[in-house]
Amino acid sequence: MERLLVTGGAGFIGSNFVHHLVDHTDLRVTVLDKLTYAASQESLAGLPEDRVQLVVGDIADADVVDPLVAAHDAVVHYAAESHNDNSLNDPSPFIRTNILGTYTILEAVRKHDKRLHHVSTDEVYGDLELDDPKRFTEDTPYNPSSPYSASKAGSDHLVRAWVRSFGVRATVSNCSNNYGPWQHIEKFIPRQITNVIDGIRPKLYGSGENVRDWIHADDHSSAVLTILEKGRIGETYLIGADGEKNNLEVVRLILTLMGQPEDAFDHVTDRAGHDLRYAIESGKLRQELGWQPQFQDFESGLANTITWYQEHEDWWRPHKDATEAKYAEKGQ
Ligand code: NAD
Ligand code: DAU
Fold first, then answer.
1. Number of CB atoms found within 10 A of residue 261's CB
2. Which of 163, 278, 324, 330 counts the most CB atoms within 10 A of its CB?
3. Minimum-distance ligand to the CA of 205?
4. 68 Cα–ligand 2 center, Å
5. Which CATH number does the domain 188-211+244-278+296-321 belong to among 3.40.50.150, 1.10.760.10, 3.90.25.10, 2.60.40.1120?
């Protein structure tokens, strides 16, 4: 494998993956990205031009996708509409990009017989009770709750069907909640960090008891590269780093790390259909492919992330007012 096409490579996790490839492989990378509101070209700045090229285009446009897929050895597919709250406001771009876009990628890899890795989410499994001893595994039945997670579930099913019916050489991964630099400030952790910087009290949906299983974006990248290199065709791998925390704990930790009283937050209107708990059992990936996460200490990973947002205000500042205005319309 010499040439890799990375869709959504200007987004939060996709750009992290491109940096990971430059640091850990000799691959030449083409990023295909529509540069939606969630993208950031700055996240790719400074990468060697002979290794990384950006093509601006839509994954649902077969005229763009087909020749690009033909010219590469493999595709890693990150591009998606990714935010649950946006999917509740308007599901249509989620259906178009996440389902039609994945279908377009699948038809191109089928036609040109190229290897595909499809990046997905643990949200396809729905949620768990707080006291349930079980965690999600590769055998957990699909049960998505939001338009976002349903569209990702639909994309996973398409990939599985193209593997079985057409012999497409694909793997799938379902990862838990990522944190780290370059995450859009609409998301929970960067929203609260930038709120505290601005003297705004963090906003916790509902009771704040909801649990997410946090993993650093760098660990997600190393897991995807491991699956691309060593994963068995047709298989699904769950990616997680044993990082279960409820939202209350996370907000209190952000406040404490930023020198504020730990109760200086507000409860706001809950998210419709809000999933209660996600938890990943990643034994298959660890035992079969030998992957291990490097960021085991959430508190120090969070502290580094806080420092990154403090030092990159010029990056997020232009989006802050509009992001908060959208939330304010819904009492959030
Ligand atoms: P993001 O919203 O930060 O980035 C998405 C990228 O896709 C953006 O650069 C955007 O411009 C691009 N894009 C959107 N529509 C496109 C289209 N039609 N054509 C081409 N490019 C398009 O998302 P993220 O958080 O980095 O998530 C990336 C992937 O990882 C998604 O597939 C998501 O479902 C999955 N995932 C995310 C998480 C998480 O915690 N954020 C966890 C598990 C899986
Ligand atoms: O589990 C993987 C998923 O994680 C990915 O598939 C999604 O792309 C990614 O956005 C993320 O989804 P969540 O909905 O879990 O992430 P979000 O950052 O939106 O919210 C995390 C938790 O925090 C969730 O329980 C809702 C809550 N929340 C969120 C915001 C924005 C708040 O309490 N307050 C907030 O202001």
1. 9
2. 278
3. 2
4. 32
5. 3.90.25.10
* One fold for 3-179+215-239 and 188-211+244-278+296-321: no
Give the closest residue to 209 by CA, choosing from 259, 247, 159.
Answer: 247
pLDDT tens-digit map of 255-283: 999 999 999 999 999 999 999 999 999 99
Task: Supply the pLDDT for residue 265.
Answer: 98
d(CA 171, CA 167) in angstroms, rounded, equals 12
CATH architecture assigned to 3-179+215-239? 3-Layer(aba) Sandwich (3.40)
Distance CA 180, CA 300 (A): 11
Q: What ipTM did this prediction achieve?
A: 0.99
What pLDDT, on a 0 to 100 scale, did the predictor assign at position 252? Answer: 98
Between the CA of 8 and the centroid of ligand 1 the distance, in Å, is 6
Annotation says 263 is catalytic = no
Residue 135: φ, ψ to 5°: -120, 170
Low-confidence residues of the chain, pLDDT below 50?
A: none
Q: Which of 78, 103, 125, 148 is catalytic?
A: 148
